[in-house]
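In the current project phase, the collection of sequences with tokenised folds has grown. A representative record is quoted in full directly below:
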Amino acid sequence: MSSEAKTDQDVRARVRSIIIQVAPNPEGVQAGETRLVEDLGYHSLALLELGFTMEDEFDLPAIDQAQVQHIATVKEVEDLVLELLRASAGDAAYG
């Protein structure tokens, strides 16, 4: 992500765009509560690819299995990316 500050809305929109681009069934998108597996057809390999794509796109640290095991919806992916971005910004400010 660039050095300019991004709003939560900008980040959510970018995350959603990536999820749709990588989704096995992109026509399944409904809203933030769209389910990754049931609605978009994600399977384990596609979910891994999605995680790697988010790490690369937002310059995130490696996403831990424990951080993602409860994630089932588009909104939950957006929330995790925002959480990791805030944690990275905090680390940079105090590191």
The chain has a mean pLDDT of 86.
